[in-house]
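Project standup — Tuesday

K.O.: blocked on the structure for the chain from last sprint. Re-posting the sequence here as requested.
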Amino acid sequence: MKLTAPLVYGLIVSILLVSAPHAEHLPVWVSVLSTMLLGWRAYLTASGNPLPKRWQLLFITLVCVGIIALSFHTLFGREVGVTLLILLGSLKLLELREVRDATVLIYLCCFVIITNFFYSQSIPTALFMLFTLLIILATWVHLQTGALAFKPRLRIAAIILLQAIPLSLLIFVLFPRVQGPLWGMPQDAYGSSGLSDTMSPGSMSKLTLSESVAFRVTFIGQRPTREQMYWRGPVLWDFDGRTWKRGRNATLQQPRLDKFSQPVNYTVTLEPHNKPWLFALDMPVRISIPADFAPDFQVLNRGPVNTRLRYNATSVMGYLANLDEPPQQMRRALSLPEGFNPRTRQLAAEWRAQNIGDEAVIKNALSYFNKNAFEYTLEPPPLGINSVDDFLFDTRKGFCEYYASSFVFLMRAAGIPARVVTGYQGGEYNDLGDYYVLRQSDAHAWAEVWLQDRGWVRYDPTAAVAPGRIQNGLSATLPNNAALPFFARTQSPLLLKLRLNLDALTNQWNQWVLGYNTERQFAFLTRLGMEDITWQKLAMNMFGGVALLVGIFTLIMLRRLRLRNSDEVQKIYLKFCKKLAKAGITRAAHEGAQNFADRASQLNSRDAAEILDITSQYIALRYHKHHDPDSLQVFKRAVSKFPT
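H.V.: unblocked you, prediction finished:
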């Protein structure tokens, strides 16, 4: 078959569609070079100029591989593999000479589609890839049919896709689930932005500019109030004068809660963030997956969270936390770097000199924030070496990390053990799915102080300055011109409803498609009546179901074979052919009725007139749209009278 220009253009469009979503993940030069190669091939096709020599393509290929090696410092890994596939596919078009080359390119495009899911598995990505697959299949149909017009090719491709849906659903439901990703190398871990185990001035305010989802929560039974929704993450102990760090735990003692009350049960669907920490409502007491509770109540997964993770947890709203904190932890909670923030130290010393208790010092600190014109803002002025002094006495403008950091510094300077806790606060309720959405814009930092007979107690200095942040969220506190992401702004009811509908759909997609793991598969199949599920039974049921569907499709596609038997004219003519066959004149499979009649009349000159007459009647009845019943009867009598 000749490779026509429309076929080449179809291949160019296919490669362009499968490569386009990778543009934001790969170096710019890859997209530019690939586009130039595709444009070059389109120009050669339109102009009729010859394709480049093979040695020229080999040289370009070697140069591309060398640049890739220099850019990525390796030839292995996810990004490198995708880059090679895209560039080599574009180069393959420049040596497209045979049908075999076109077939290889179509298969390559189908494979590159899969690589798009390495970066995004959202509904829009799936829909775009489905459209791309439709175009690829239409190009493949063109390769097989030649001059068939575009619309019929597209219709055939759509039918093929529709036929594949039942098979895909069956395989999806029954295929034994594999724990963990199918593709993975150390350098391929997700690089999603999220909370870090360090905190510096401005780190939280930068994070709130992201509208991406951190996790979703579904409560089972009683729900806490928004003011109680503090989602615990990394706990920061060590301070070097500017940055708070998690550091190393000074004890291996397990955390302990006493006199706890008000248990709350919930399910968290956590997005991948490439860190080991899990998020739980303050304070967590149980989690359904293998995880460790650090001495400071931080919940740690046994490995980085590189895939979407779903777990059940229980937390308590009332508690006494670590009443017998080890001395080494207490020393750690009091340590401060020497030579920093002298004015803050002096203020804390003045409060302590008043011979008041720890709780009175805390009250003074919160009152100081509340009564000294502090401003809650995403765009605070820069701070100097003595960052806490500059914030408390000069700028008085900052985000949550400024208040948490300075509050903990004040407590330690006053001799009260304290630490910084980071995580998320609040959440947006979606009544369509009855769950809460926590976005990166909900990131927050607060403080915990250790008090005699009470243990670790949460204090949020941000609430003393901007209580609306805790009660109603970020957008309710900051001015309308603040640099907030779109999803964090106050919106019209129509936009809000649309947004919640889209998020509810995304949540269902995450739960039942992306989150269809071994546990969910077994639970779903058990509800369908399948008991004692094993991977062997799943495989047998899957292959049996595939065979059944293929059999049904085969019967449907072969149904036209029966139409011939339901055609009365055709049935009578076949009897005529059988009579001739008994006389030794057999009709060939490729032979038309008139050609067969001409040959049969020559071989049987005695009945030649009858053969030609019966054939002419057959052609008239078979291929003319309208005929009267008498003509059919005449034809039937003529065949019946024909000698055997």
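K.O.: great, moving the ticket to review. The two ends are 46 Å apart (CA to CA). DSSP finds 23 helices and 18 strands in the chain.
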